[in-house]
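Final paragraph of the annual report: two paired records, presented back to back.
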Amino acid sequence: MARFAVWVPELFILGVVLGPIVLFAVLVRRRTKRFGYASAAAYLRAAPRSDAEKRDAADLALKGLVSCVLGLLFPPIVLVGLVPLFYGGRKLVYASMGLGLVDDADHPDE
């Protein structure tokens, strides 16, 4: 029993760091299917095209912000929270600039 007690802090820290990463991956995969994107990377790169996607981007940014604030209590969570904060914030900026109205596939890079 004493051997297991030595591993408890490490397992807790591993769960605190890996838990949010796995949760973020599951949430992105679910959103990818819901909005009809080919991959998670395509979803994260795309500008929001509908009001539902804009709400989803705001939700993603706020979840990242909450994770960063939680990082004040548990410092490793700050690094995990930066990922959804970045992608959600970027999507919100794209939406505020009106970039979701133009599909990137129709306009190749010049």
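The closing record of the year follows.
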Amino acid sequence: MYKKKKSGLPMSQIDYEAIISQLKAELKAECAISNRHGIVISSLINEFAKGRVIPQTILDLIVRRQEIAEELKLNEINSFAFASEDFHYLFTFSEELILISKLDLKIDLAKFMPSISAFLSKLSASAQDSEVHDFSVFDFTREIQNIETALKEEAVKKEKYAIIKELIKYISK
């Protein structure tokens, strides 16, 4: 029906597996990328395996980030960090993507977070769609003609089968 002009690569053409591997090599951190709906696109984190969905409570927190920022008198919130006994889980988000990083407790989050936020914003910009550019006209007359032709063919087939049905009824008596 319409064509979209892309500002960068479509999300389906970005090699998220390679990006995750590169992050692992350069940052020494296991990472996962999900879309804005929380479906994990690529992952090296067992807890957030590819195809799984981020828990709803975490998604709710991400969705409510502007409300939380206002309560804290901040302009915006770009990341949430959770500390477990063994790791930090860092959720960094943009409008299109959520990057999950599983970090060793020894890593200084203050040094790690700005670089990962900048990386995600660049990745998100390359995956984001721009405005609808061109519309194509849908040809209803051609579709109606196709439907009428299909109905005529069906009527002819129905008549043929009616004769066969009558013969079967006559033979089975």
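The beta strands are 2-6, 30-35, 40-43, 79-83, 87-93, 97-104, 129-135. This concludes the annual technical report; the extension proposal builds directly on these records.
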